[in-house]
Each structure stands twice: as C-alpha cells, then as structure tokens.
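Anyone able to model this chain together with D-ribose?
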Amino acid sequence: MPKTIAIACDHAGFPLKEALKKACGDRYRWLDLGTNSTDSVSYADFGEHLAKAIGAGRADYGILICGTGIGISIAANRYAHIRAAVCTSSTMARLARAHNNANVLALGARIIGAEVALDCIDTFMTTDFEGGRHQARVDKLNTGL
Ligand code: RB5
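re: yes, here you go
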C-alpha cells in the first residue's frame, strides 16, 4: 500500500508541486492541500493547512513547497508535531529522516530543480529514523513550549 503524503505549496511552488505529483506516478498517494494556481497566496496559510492535516492523521508525511522552502517550513514548524526540514540534496533528505525524524520535507522551487526535488522525495520516503542517540535529541525539541 503506497504511503499517503500531504502536499501543499504557495504560488511560487505550484508548478513544482504539479510536476512532482506527475513524476512520482502511483508511488505515493497524495493529499493535495493546494494551492492550485500561480495566483498569489500566503505560504503561512498552506504551512498551517498541512500541519493540521498531519495532526488530524490524514497523512503520515508531508511535502511543502514555496520559493525557498523557508517561509512555508517556518509556518509548519510552529506546530509541535511537525518537524519540517528544508532540503536541497538527497543527503540532506536522508539525514533529516535518519537523525531528525523529520516528518515534512520542505523544498524551494526557486532553489532546486525537479530532478533534485524527486531525489529528495524518494530518499526522504525510504529512509528510517535511526533512533538511538538521536531519540533524546528529538525528544528535547518540544520541551519548554
Ligand atoms: C513568494 O514570493 C516567496 O516569498 C515565498 O514563496 C517563499 O520563498 C517564502 O519563504
């Protein structure tokens, strides 16, 4: 059974969102939370939509896309159950999963191309959290909130 990925973007990320869904074919099931055009929107809203969808159990993992991946990841990371990592290489995607147990991959459509983005997605989705010494560090991320 393919894993369900929630995906959301702003206007800058919309063309890459569509290209990535098409290129991935049926490797994953998508919960597409928009936006659905290049009309100007706020990344803050779409980061929030995705964080809430994952919190509600509608998807296990998420992908966020804006111009840089930064604004939309900041928006999602306001939620304690989200660990969103901006990645520009498959190495970063692998370590975001293995060391940080990231559950959301953030991509910058103005920073990387579709091929690198696809490598990031496939690596992110096939790498397990290593646990061990990394578990206590991840556990600390939500202390003091
Ligand atoms: C939109 O122009 C742009 O600011 C946004 O996509 C993102 O890069 C913000 O972090």
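The longest strand covers residues 4-9.
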